[in-house]
Amino acid sequence: MDLDGGCEIGRARFVEPVVVGEPRVGLGDRDEIARAWMIEPGRALDNYRAYAKLHTALFPYLYTYAKQASVDGTPLIRPLPLVDPNDTTADEYWLGGELLVAPVLEKSSLSRTVTLPAGTWFDYWTNKKVEGTITWSGPQTQIPLFVRAGAIVPRISQDIQTLTDAAYVDNPTIRTADDALDFLIYPSGSSHLVVYDDTEVSVDVIETTKITVKSVARPLQLDVYAVAHPTSVRIDGTERAEGDGWQFDGTFVTLTLAHAGGTTTIEFGGISPDETSPGGCGCHASGDGSGLIVVLVLAWSVRRRRCRN
Q1: How confident is the model at residue 147 (pLDDT cuts 50, 70, 90)?
Q2: In the chain, which ranges are continuous DSSP H helix?
């Protein structure tokens, strides 16, 4: 993806295409001086490398919504009025159904005002909870990128250097993609996503939070946003101590699993503010077995359905 515009480019005009489109460095074929590496070669390369890694990591997410576009015409890049006709914000856009992008348009600026759609959002880089109109700031290797509460974002490792298979690359020093999937999850209400390869994930937060995933055998990683340290973690009913396949870093519970195929149920206790007791008192779940239930159901189908609060 190329962008015309000559020398007067802001950082977003270079890095944004790497996130949402083809990771190509060229910014205009008609004027050689508009090549990013001729303007600020060191910084341009750093920016390109950071966003190329993000673009690659988001491949399952981007491909999922590109596939949806081919099926029902819903575009991958969605103007805000397309999602909500009452939202007239013109310089931000939905990227698929879970992410919001607010490009920095002023040359060399490191901040901008962002007006978020209604609801709760999280800064992709800092995981800070945000709502309404905010002032965002960050380094040039980051663009204002936000994840909605309730989101399910399929990713692959940012260590992956190419999406082509190992046999084609034929170079053991280059890390190639495998079947592993990483799900970034912000539990809230009910959500449902079918990945482009028909991997299916559902999240329901009522008395507990249930995430349903069904799949062939493959490595899985769950990065689940948590407001507190889990009071318990169970996989298929078996209690797991911290360090035995999961850890909590203060923001996310990260659980890795050598999924054998079929259905796996994972239960986290006490990590979601939306959890309620069976009596519906609105209080937080205790450590008595109530909590976040993650039922991973990885199914192969083409449709995508997402329910919101």
Answers
A1: very high
A2: 11-20, 36-39, 41-57, 59-72, 80-83, 166-169
Q: What 3-state DSSP class applies to 32?
A: helix
Here the tokens at position 258 are: 């050598």
Q: What three-state secondary structure class fits 165?
A: coil
- Residues of the chain with pLDDT > 70, as a percent, come to 75
- Between the alpha carbon of residue 275 and those of residues 32, 192, 265, the distances in Å are 56, 18, 17
Set out the domains of the chain in order of their start, with CATH numbers.
11-59 (no CATH), 70-148 (2.60.40.1180), 152-296 (2.60.40)
Among 139, 78, 73, smallest CA distance to 111 is for: 139
- Check residue 105 and give left, alpha or beta (phi > 0: left; psi -120 to 50: alpha): alpha
- Highest mean predicted confidence (pLDDT) among 9-23, 229-243, 277-291: 229-243
Q: Is the pTM of this model over 0.85?
A: no
- The Cβ of residue 25 has, within 10 Å, a number of other Cβ atoms equal to 16
State how far the Cα of 52 lies from the Cα of 221, in Å rounded to an integer.
21
CB environment 77-98: b (16+ within 10 A), e (fewer): ebebeeeeeebebeebbbbbbb
The amino acid at residue 272 is S
Q: Which two tokens stand for residue 89?
A: 């914000």
95: amino acid identity, one letter: L
Measure the CA–CA gap between 252 and 229, rounded to whole angstroms: 9
Q: Are 136 and 114 in contact (CB under 8 A)?
A: yes
For residue 135, which of 124, 123, 147 has the smallest C-alpha distance? Answer: 123
Distance CA 218, CA 215 (A): 8
Query: H or E stretch including 215?
Result: strand 209-215
Tally the C-alpha atoms within 13 A of residue 226's C-alpha that lie toward its C-beta.
29
